[in-house]
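Dear colleagues,

As part of the handover before I leave the project, I'm documenting each prediction I ran so the next person doesn't have to rerun anything. This entry is a single chain, and its sequence is reproduced below.
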Amino acid sequence: MGIIRLLPEHIANQIAAGEVVQRPASVVKELLENAVDAGAKHIKLIVKDGGKSLIQVIDDGIGMDETDARMSFERHATSKIKSSEDLFRIKTKGFRGEALASIAAVAHVEMKTRPHDRELGTLIKIEGGEFKLQEAIQTAPGTSVAVKNLFFNVPARRKFLKSPQVEMRHIIDEFQRVALAYPELEFTLIHNGNELYRLFPSNLLRRITSVFGNKMEERLLPLNEETEYIKIYGYTGKPEFAKLKRGEQFFFVNKRFIKSPYLHSAVMKAYEGLLREKRIPPYFIYFEIEPEHIDINIHPTKTEIKFDDEYTVYNILRASTRRALGQFNQMPSLDFDTMPELNFDKPVKSSGIRREPKINVDPAFNPFKTGTDKPFVSKPAFEKPSRKAIENFSEFMQAPKNDFFPAKEEKISAEIFSKEEIKGDIESMQWLDKYILTHTRTGIIMINQHRAHVSILFEEYYKNLSAGKIPSQQLMFPLIPDLLDSEIELIEKNKTLFERTGLSGENEGGTFRFTAIPAGLKESQVLDFVENLIASLSEDLPIDRDDMNRFLALKLAMASAVRNGQKLNSDERQNLIAQLFSLPEPELTPSGKRNFIILSENQIEKLF
């Protein structure tokens, strides 16, 4: 038939590049690892426009002669593998021989390299996989690789790159991973002419604090466990510093950064009962194991590793993390020597007043209130609904409901609620401190209280943001969240965004102080909102103004809504129900989740 043919070399290289070079950060990873493998002591990374215009890595490693320099750009050319047995004894970072060939296939590459024992070095220029120039030059010992105009010949791939800010965040991630794996080496990162990092050789803890700020030291506990099979060491975080944001969790196996949901679950198992919901502690955990016990040749980017005895690694990691928490009093302990039920205080002879005096405090008191001003009072969880809201609720509930979910198409003539209920006396109960149950003449409604309140607050916040910004309240004493330097930097870069939500403050000597917060929010709710928003800033934010308003409104609503597990009295339940069903679309939350389900009388009868 003659329909099968060999691909041209340049197309094969572009296909291979798709596996290895996914974005500028992929190039950074490969070049930094090559510099480490070359025995460099000082490594400098220079980036422009988030890596789209330039990525350059300069090292003082062993360098290459003209033959090796040319061969390094050939596919599957490597100095690290001579036989198949070598695959099971790998201790270096790169070994496939694909990195430089793949990068050169989709960019303009310029390499300058020189061994330390030679006077002249070699210059090589490649464009889209084609060699353009090779000549002898004067250059410093070591190697410099400059990658320009990434994906210039693959416009479809270049079009899908994110903004320079987002791509730079991914580059910083890769830079941090290599720098944390090798604290004994010096690393420098320069972006658009600005030096972002200058990391000098140090011990592991000092390297961690150099990357994440000095505040990180007080958040960590040392971890150390050594067995015949594996050695585990590093640091794990104190439970109170766990956050919603991921990004401060690192595993290294033989100094290679890896991703492993399986090992992450072992760490989280050790923290069982110690963390707030959805919180993740920081950790920097290093494994040393004989290469024959692992397989790192299972993924093109080499970030996944398979152990020959994963069960043992899992249990050793969980136990060592648990032990670290226990040794430093991060876990609740039980005193089995005494029983609190039988531990009575000795009676003390009365001498004077034993009852503590009571102090009456007016929560609405405002020392800055003038005669015409109204004192600021925190907004109640649920405002008293209007008669119209109650009537809307009644009208909505007169529609037939199918498959546990509301449908508004057909109206039925029989009233579901009695006249007393329409006036506002809607009977309800709370179940598991999470669901609100109310009955009608045709069935039972089960409402998720947190989701329902999120939907109610979202509408209000969205209207305020669309009109300008959220009203704010000034604080007598500033609110000081516990933030890392990188988080403070994110707030300063997005200061306008925070101000639209009613937040404002200043960075004073590495400590950020909020002097105004959104009106009606408690300080604990503000801290949750700030943490959630910081976590979101690591991803792409909406560009469209209306989408941004919805994004911010949802974050505010989620932070300030009543929590599952919070008890509500009868009035609060009734008001929530009425407000929910006065919304244009009460069925779903802004993110598309159900607010409630309805069980009809027929459905209940079928259950029996």
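DSSP finds 18 helices and 24 strands in the chain. The CA atoms of residues 299 and 305 lie 8 Å apart.

All the best with the project,
I.
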